[in-house]
Design a protein that fits this description.
- This protein has 588 residues and is an alpha/beta fold.
- Helix content is 18%, strand content 23%.
- It contains 10 helices and 23 strands.
- The strands form 6 sheets. Strands 3, 5, 6, 7, 8, 10, 11, 15 and 17 form a 9-stranded mixed sheet that branches. Strands 2-1-18-19-20-22 form a 6-stranded mixed sheet.
- Helix 5 packs across helix 6 (378-400).
Length: 588
């Protein structure tokens, strides 16, 4: 099934629930809460040179000791300088834990052979004789998809950085998304708090062939797919991966490369990735950073890889648990391809998702197999895509990689409250489909203008030497990252093809864009988005191209290219989620 017609992340609830829900529907009324946007911000730097926020002595920066400047440094007395001495070496550690579920029941009589379980007319094999279909429900491609087996393990992988006493950890789970509420529970785990880590970033690969960790893809629409035992297991093992990463910290060297996943012709990307929503704008940049032991550069501690694409290359017909292309990307990066004479890097690879909103992924893509022929679908397609991306990354690192000596850690973060207008999310929260708290409204009163739920969320800026990541609490549309309204990020494709409700590009925002702001930070050479990190709030759609069906707000996709709006928090998603990213990316 192509990305264009799929309902892979459909939060559809039956129409009957609309009438039965005890609330008054609200739409894109334009009501702005005074509490929306960033409510707090912090900034820190491990370098004693100029600190984080504060520039030449402004308040707000926490500065680690050991910088090259003396007391006060460039910031004057009490300003941004460190306390003297040479900056300490960068330390890196890594941790991995398996989060593959134990499957209880996997067989049902799929009478119409559509791959979905229909309890009204289909039976299942009740192996434990409890009268209930104890399936593991797959997230993505709609509700009612039972897992039938396991192709490869899904995991949580964490990478830790320490410099001048400041420690930051990035942990990424192979799941469709992870709410901030679960992330906070991980951070509060006693084994984690005992580490004294300064900052912990948690995110998801946005896997579409793993367990439902959000609650919207259960046995039927309107029934949660959450398994409390599995949720706890993911939290416990994320905590364990973080502990392992911090416990394995050791002095490291860094080598970094960037390339684009382009076909051999140098223009098209369609052997790797595509965008199937207008405007066709996407960033196929592939970033790889290898961290090796300081005393032996042949021994890899960890490798960080960032790229943007929905992990759904195996397609909706696959019912086996798999990390999709992410699995093969990590596997080949570590182990290479001996049959092709390609050496891997060893160590452990941590993959961070990018700006994949707007249907950036496998739609219309045919990666090449080992025989040079296109692989059109299924798990072989996912394997070919992940393998080929890893090959490009390894080649770029070998031929164009730069050994970087700067290793200062800079960290900034903001917390905000984002207005949730989406009726689906209202229903899901009230029906208990997902386990997430809403704020700034009275749940005992109808949801209407003046009483609209808000979601607490976060964004963060992390810089390690020349590498900088800005986190997105959802699926950021790439045009909100690169701009590209002139066609410069369309890679030979028409930027517009759909006529109905087409975006008016003359009303698109002007630069500088988020990527521009990131690259303007001191010392930054390589910038990328950490997608679905710090929270998961659906698609982050540009305001100028946000269109809803006028008669069925959020419940029916508007004509044209507007599926993503139905799976966003609402028309304020850019203002309340991407604008804080812009603020955080600006050079202090």
């Amino acid at each position: 099934m192509s990305a264009r017609i799929r309902i892979h992340a459909s939060y559809l609830l039956p129409a009957i629930l609309i009438g039965g829900a005890a609330l008054t529907a609200c739409g894109d009324d334009g009501n702005t809460s005074s509490g929306a946007g960033a409510s707090s911000a912090t900034s820190s730097s491990s370098s004693g040179n100029t600190g984080g926020a504060g520039g030449t002595g402004g308040a707000g920066a926490m500065v680690g000791a050991g910088g090259m400047a003396g007391a006060g440094g460039m910031g004057g007395a009490g300003g941004a300088g460190g306390s003297g001495g040479m900056a300490s070496a960068l330390e890196v550690g890594v941790g991995v834990r398996v989060i593959t579920p134990s499957l209880v029941e996997t067989e049902w009589n799929d009478v119409n052979d559509d791959g979905y379980y229909d309890p009204s007319k289909e039976t299942f094999t009740d192996t434990n004789n409890n009268g209930k279909f104890d399936a593991t429900w797959l997230a993505g491609f709609g509700a009612g998809r039972p897992a039938t087996g396991i192709n490869d393990n899904v995991e949580v992988r964490a990478i830790a950085f320490r410099q001048n006493g400041k420690t930051v950890v990035v942990a990424i789970l192979d799941v469709i998304g992870y709410f901030i509420d679960d992330m906070d529970k991980v951070r509060a785990d006693p084994t984690v708090t005992a580490l004294g880590v300064d900052h912990i970033l948690i995110g998801a690969t946005h896997l579409h062939e793993g367990v439902d960790t959000i609650g919207l893809w259960g046995p039927t629409e309107g029934e949660t797919g959450l398994n409390p035992e599995y949720q706890k297991m993911t939290r416990d093992r994320t905590a364990a991966a973080i502990v392992e990463a911090v416990g394995s910290l050791k002095p490291a060297r860094m080598r970094v490369a960037q390339t684009k996943t382009l076909n051999p012709d140098g223009t098209s990307t369609l052997q790797y990735v595509n965008d199937v929503r207008d405007p066709v704008i996407y960033d196929p940049t592939l970033t790889i950073a290898r961290f090796t032991e300081e005393g032996d550069p042949t021994k890899t501690i960890a490798t960080l890889v960032n790229w943007s694409a929905h992990p759904e290359y195996a397609g909706s017909g696959n019912h086996l648990i798999t990390a999709d292309y992410v699995h093969w990307l990590r596997h080949v990066t570590e182990g290479g391809l001996p049959a092709e004479g390609i050496a891997g890097l060893g160590g452990k690879t941590v993959f961070v998702q990018g700006a994949l909103g707007g249907q950036v992924g496998p739609g219309g893509v045919q990666p090449l197999g080992i025989d040079g022929q296109p692989v059109p679908k299924g798990l072989p397609k996912a394997q070919a895509a992940g393998t080929n991306v890893a090959k490009l990354a390894l080649d770029a690192l070998e031929k164009n990689g730069q050994d970087e000596t700067s290793s200062d850690i800079v960290f900034r973060e903001k917390e905000m409250f984002a207005q949730v207008d989406n009726l689906r999310y209202h229903f899901a929260q009230q029906l208990g489909l997902f386990d997430r708290q809403f704020y700034m409204y009275d749940p005992q009163k109808p949801i209407e203008p003046g009483n609209i739920p808000h979601a607490r969320s976060q964004v963060a800026y992390l810089q390690v030497g020349p590498i900088a990541m800005i986190t997105a609490p959802g699926e950021l549309h790439p045009e909100l990252w690169v701009g590209g309204y002139d066609g410069s990020w369309s890679f030979g494709q028409p930027i517009l093809s759909v006529q109905e409700n087409a975006p008016d590009l003359t009303t698109a925002p002007k630069g500088p864009y988020l990527r521009d702001l990131m690259l303007a930070n001191p010392g930054v050479k390589y910038a990328f988005v950490g997608g679905l990190v710090q929270d998961f709030l659906g698609y982050i759609v540009p305001s100028f191209n946000f269109v809803l069906d006028p008669d069925n707000l959020y419940l029916v996709e508007a004509a044209g290219d507007h599926y993503e709006e139905t799976n966003s928090i609402g028309p304020k998603c850019e203002e309340h989620l991407q604008h804080p990213m812009m603020d955080l990316a600006k050079t202090p």
